[in-house]
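Late entry, written up from scratch paper. The run itself happened at the end of the previous shift, but nothing got recorded in the book at the time, so transcribing now.
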Amino acid sequence: MTLVSRVDHLVYATTDLNQGSEEMEKLLGVKATLGGQHPGRGTKNALIALGPTAYLEIIGPDPDQPAPQEPRSFGIDRLTQPKLVTWAMKATNLAQLRNEVTRDGMPYEEVRAGGRQRPDGIQLSWAVINPAVPETEGLLPFFIDWGKSPHPAETAAQGATLVSLRAEHPKAHSVEAMLKRLSIDLPVINGPAPALIAVIECPNGRVELR
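Output as recorded:
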């Protein structure tokens, strides 16, 4: 199975969802579909499909919710500019997976549940495990299981396809070694700062998003 086929979604964080969606439309030539609110988390999202079971999540603060008690997900409160902050891989049996990777020396947090309502009223629910290795700055994926919920790519805006994914990090060799312990073949090269780079085929041609 190729790396791209294992990608569930990419997370593009922004301090203003409308502005972030407009910038993405200019870059890709695809207008994102409104995803919905994340109750209690102070965020909402918009989506662009990157294939039948993969998508780009544009996420930002939700002005219609009160500020959450905890910091918003994906470092949104600390952002200085929009960026591709992390990615998710498809998975099932998350508790078992967490036990396996933790036993192999790759710390992941406990399974957490999430949910949101689509604009059409359909309720989505999911479970995730997040890496507990903050110095990798989002280059290690989190794993997600959608259970019986319809996959968000089904109703996301169409027209784009994920071609490849790669990363940069000042300690590339160390991060790549961690990924290999997770059996993830994500190329990592040395760079001045941690970065995730996606190559996307879209109406505007083949573009890079980071």
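The chain has a mean pLDDT of 95.
(Scratch paper discarded after transcription.)
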